From TrEMBL:
Location of region: G3: 68-71
Domain KH type-2: 213-290
PANTHER family: GTPASE ERA (PTHR42698), GTPASE ERA, MITOCHONDRIAL (PTHR42698:SF1)
Record-stated family: Belongs to the TRAFAC class TrmE-Era-EngA-EngB-Septin-like GTPase superfamily. Era GTPase family.
Topology relative to the membrane: Peripheral membrane protein
Gene coding for it: era
Protein name: GTPase Era
InterPro entries linked to this entry: G_ERA_dom, GTP-bd, GTPase_Era-like, KH_dom-like_a/b, KH_dom_type_2, KH_sf_prok-type, P-loop_NTPase, Small_GTP-bd
Taxonomy, superkingdom: Bacteria
Classification lineage: Bacteria, Pseudomonadati, Pseudomonadota, Alphaproteobacteria, Rhodobacterales
Amino acid sequence: MTDVTITPETPQRAGFVALIGEPNAGKSTLLNRMVGAKVSIVTHKVQTTRTRIRGIAMEGDAQIVFVDTPGIFRPRRRLDRSMVAAAWGGVSDADIIVLLIEAHRGMTDGVQTILTQLRDSVGDRPVALAINKIDRVKAEHLLALSKQMNEAFPFTRTFMISAEKGYGTDDLRGWLASELPVGPWLYPEDQIADLPMRMIAAEITREKLTLRLHEELPYQLTVETEAWEDRKDGSAKIDQIIYVAREGHKGIVLGHKGEAIRAVGKAAREELSEFLGRPVHLFLTVKVREKWLDEAERFREMGLDFNDG
């Protein structure tokens, strides 16, 4: 009789990981790095992420659902308040929280405010610290910052990473996978995001506007996908509206003789075609809507709760 060793299969794990931090800490870049595809808007302009965006990554037998939240900052208007509420809503729903801070900025007032609220909201859930952009500072600074942060809050683990270059991100993803609850996967294995494609398309166009217009870009701007037609030839016809709050903003978005809007449309169309794997016909219209920041429908299109403002 031969002894047979039966090894139980590794159990499936699945859960939500909230990425939180100040604006521009690198949350969207980290999300895209973890997922291996671009699912969240990434620019150097702060407060570009407005809603909770879920990106889905597979790590062995674990499905990690990353929630990229808007940066947490001091809100001044309704849109700001709704964005911050969305960020803390992502924390409340998560199994694990990852706080991102910038290595060269360290323990800012904003980070201290986040730590204060974390103490009151996380309970016994694991909270990891990810010190991002480590290539910008020297090793001794990183060690001192890690010590300072861990004295201020009982982090479960600390990771030194560069979300942009990929340093340390594999270790972070592996640890997260091991910490998730045992349970069935929440999404199909090949799905990378749970945002509707209409919203992803709008976010891609908004990113191109941000990159093209830089400091000129009016903050009071949003993009909505008004219509989406899947054509018989396999292509997609997408109509989008860019809402601005003032007549003067319309001229900025259009540019001289329409140059800016044509460049934005071309860049957005190319990325959408690559993302969807098929030709895209993109049509952009710029409309002035002075009170869009006070309209519940505009907030719903962005995935925000108007009442949180």
